[in-house]
Amino acid sequence: MKRESTKICSHQVVGALIRDAQGHILLFQRNTFPPGFAGPAGHQELEESSEEALEKEVREEVGLQTVEYRLIAEFFDPHPCRRESQRLGHHWKFYEVAVSGELQTNDREVVPQSARYFSLEELAAIAAHTEEGKTNAEGFDWPWLKFFQMVGLIQR
Question: Which of 14, 73, 106, 146 is most deeply packed, by most CB within 10 A?
């Protein structure tokens, strides 16, 4: 699991909720720190808008083109970052995203063969392996669990 980074943390992060025609949610196991299941997400660089960062992360991690999006949730997550930083935490913005193209994952970011669309029942099973502040490859990257709870996709 890769943890290196020489970039400075902007404390701004975007995440993409991508669904298929059946309403299943695109997730994958992260191949970078922190481990766990997540959707496309990443830091907003200092020179980027949130929307530019969103389009970049979706393209880089899963090879899809963003067609349209809308902000559906935001919150502050106090956990540490792998990037250089003088303070803790990130301001997360989650978008519901419509995409086009064929799923093609980036093996640097995504555990090979792990990306697919998950049902709500499968989300609940992954949530059972997630504890706040702890990294676990079988559970969610913590902000994703918080997001799924906020928008009512997981009750816990």
Answer: 14
